Amino acid sequence: MFEKEQQTIEAKVRAYCAQNDIPLAELKWQPIPFSGEWGISTSFFATAALETRAGKKIQVPKRAQEIAEQIKGAVLSVSKDQIGSVDGISRIEAVKGYLNLYFSTFEYARRVMDEVLASGPDFGRGAPKNERVMVEYAQPNTHHSFHIGHARNTILGEVLARLVEFAGFDTIRASYPGDIGLGVITVLWAYDKFYKGQEPAGIHERGQWLLKIYVEATALLEKKENETPQETAQREAYDAERHEMYRKWDAGDKYVRDLWLKTREWSLAELRDILRILDVKIDVWFFESEVDEPAKEIVEELVKKGIADDERQQGGAVIVKIDEKLGLTKEKYRTNIILRSDGTTLYLTKDLALAKQKFEQYHVDRSIYVVDVRQSMHLQQAFAILKLWGFPQAEKCYHLGYGFVSLPEGAMSARRGRVVLFKDVMDEAIRRVLAVESEKAPELSEAERKKVAEQIGLGALVYSMLSVDNNRDIVFDINEALSFDGRTGPYIQNAHVRANSILKKAKTLNFEHSTFDYELTSHEIQLIELLSRFPLTVQQAANEYRPLVMAAYAYDLANTFHSFYHAVPVMQTENEEIRLARLRLVAAAKQTIANALRLLDIQAPEVM
RNA sequence: GCCCCCGUAGCUCAGUGGAUAGAGCGUCGGCCUCCGGAGCCGAAAGCCGCAGUUCGAGCCUGCGCGGGGGCGCCA
Predict the structure, then answer these.
(1) Which nucleotide is nearest to A315 (CA to C1')?
(2) For position A80, what pLDDT does the model report?
(3) Cα–Cα dist A71/A98, whole Å
(4) Quick one: pLDDT band at residue A84, thresholds 50, 70, 90?
(5) How far is the CA of A359 from the C1' of B17 (A)?
(6) What is the model's pLDDT at position A52?
(7) Nearest nt (C1') from A98 Cα
(8) Mean pLDDT of A562-576
């Protein structure tokens, strides 16, 4: 937001250095820490180090301070006419090798407020980048229920999509559910054999019921210790039935296909409802079952191109010796199979086919995969093969890996039914908020209370998933995830509510022309500075593909607002000019908190 | 055997080459006659080890120690 001033000063610094034979290194600007005032700074250590390398015998820190002081003098000196004073800068200091430029707050405060309030919900939006990004996430297997690990995936993916979209990328949201495989067939088999027609009516009840069937079926099919011969025979018979069903599915048997579609729809109905709750709107659905045929075709193409080696004649599979083809001498991507010896495809094959479709049909320039870190090797292999295949977009394929979500008692396991379901956590979240709401907000109607409970409960859950960097594992503790105190979603939402509360109390919001031509408190300055950082934070989070960056910013902003709120009176301010200016600042803060929350897929309530 | 991730305060985590390493929870102490206390203000407490690169290392490189994950017919 202060690029112009930065450039003006930079030009002066360059001019001075050129005149005085100082080999200027790259200038990096950053906000001044610790000051409580507001401005930007840069250091001259790198420049001094360059001089050292050029042969001068000097102490770098001392020399850096020297340069900073000289430049300060030059910038301030009006007599040398090519280096005059700079508009908008109130004060310049040279300290410890740094050049600090303090802004004249009056001018900048007005500029920041103007931009926030004129842009409103678009404040922080980046200019269009003419580049298309596809984010693939929310890809649970069907015929199971949606657990808290799926929730982490979906939330990370959605927030990433919101960030890159707001940052200026043309964005496509894609989901890739695993709707076929032995696990799916296992549920089909058990449903058909033991439970046909007994499904419950509710969307979530039915989805969760499928998981129950899966757990039971897995137990029936699992080899046990000390099995009697009869038990062994029974188990093997079941297993044979299951595989026969898979064969029929593959052959397109109508009965099995209908059964599959019907049960799959139950899962998808539950998934769609959870996505509705999370305000996720998927643009493109790719089903694993639909990329099977294209996958088989690309195997032949890769063999023909000499990328894959066909060992089928020897009774083997089709493989890609990735390291060898890339000319690597060290083991890195290894070798992997793209077609089983029985002619069926694998996950890797399907991902290759899917990537081809993304590039050719959807023209994506960047492809982001939000997938569990345990599949990191698999995706690196896929990207490497895409590169061998000649897709330039392979360079811009990115695996956003995230650590898995486990429970205090160990890893989650759908097979064993040891999972924490998203819906259960969410229901509990709402219960907990409702329990405190009657005390916190007694004036709310029943309907409002329920709506707010959903906003706050989800806010807590979502923020707890975003406030940890994605590559870290999470041990899910419901009390931590649903905490409303401290560094949490509700803390940020509360800042929004408080800002709203002040604005509601104001008789008029006629502050369009109010100025900040009075002595600002450090709380006001810090709040304005935070607001001004929002657009750059959007870009950083999007460029680094890191939702955490925005989650951290939102907390800092809320924290700064809460401090301001306690320290600086707004409505009680006697002076009307100052009161209006502060109201304007509160309005800008409310808007920016709302924008940040929206990017984090968290609702910004007006009351709570 | 090889590859990837992680090691920062009692606990859970930020901080990816610059000034004084920050939060939350927990502990201890203050603040509701004042715009909403889901809040604010304060205190105690910390970079796994050894080398190296650099003017400067929690951050980069190497080695070691400790924890987690992965490695040709699962997804």
Answers:
(1) B73
(2) 44
(3) 11
(4) very low
(5) 37
(6) 85
(7) B19
(8) 94
- The integer distance in angstroms from the CA atom of A604 to the C1' atom of B26 is 29
How many angstroms separate the CA of A37 from the C1' of B75?
A: 54
Residue A83 pLDDT class (50, 70, 90 cuts): very low
Structure-token match 């939402």, residue found? A493
Whole-structure pTM value: 0.95
**How far does the CA of A489 sit from the C1' of B31, in Å?**
24
Find the nucleotide nearest A548 (Cα to C1′): B14
pLDDT of residue A438 exceeding 90, the answer is: no
ipTM of this complex: 0.96
- DSSP conformation letters of A264-314: HHHHHHHHHHHHHHTT---SEE--GGGSHHHHHHHHHHHHHTTSSEE-GGG
Taking the mean position of all CA atoms in its chain, how far away is CA A178? Answer: 22
Query: For residue A227, is it left (φ>0), alpha (ψ between -120 and 50) or beta?
Result: beta
Q: What is the pLDDT of residue A85?
A: 56
- Residue A590 pLDDT more than 90? yes
C1'-nearest nucleotide to the CA of A401: B5
A339's enclosing H/E stretch is strand A335-339
Contact positions of strand B to protein Cβ (< 7 A): 2-6, 12-16, 18-20, 23-26, 34-41, 54-56, 68-75
Arithmetic mean of pLDDT over chain A:
92
Residue nearest to nucleotide B39 (CA to C1'): A562
Alpha helices in A54-173 (DSSP H): 60-76, 105-119, 148-167
Sheet holding A318-321: strands in order across? A309-310, A318-321, A335-339
Nucleotide nearest to A503 (CA to C1'): B35
Read off the amino acid at residue A144.
H
Burial of A188 (0-12, 13-18, 19+ CB in 10 A): buried
Element (H, E) at A135: strand A132-136
Q: What's the CA–C1' distance between A121 and B25, in Å?
A: 34
A115-167: pLDDT as tens digits: 999 999 999 999 999 999 999 999 999 999 999 999 999 999 999 999 999 99
Residue A117 structure tokens:
């309030």
From the CA of A50, how many Å to the C1' of B56? Answer: 14
DSSP A131: -
Taking the CA of residue A110 and the C1' sugar atom of nucleotide B69, their distance in angstroms comes to 51
Backbone φ and ψ for A15, nearest 5 degrees, come out as -60, -45
Phi, psi of A594 (to 5 degrees): -60, -45
Closest CA-bearing residue to C1' of B25: A486
Q: Residue A584: which residues within 8 A CB-CB, separation 6 or more?
A: A113, A117, A511, A514
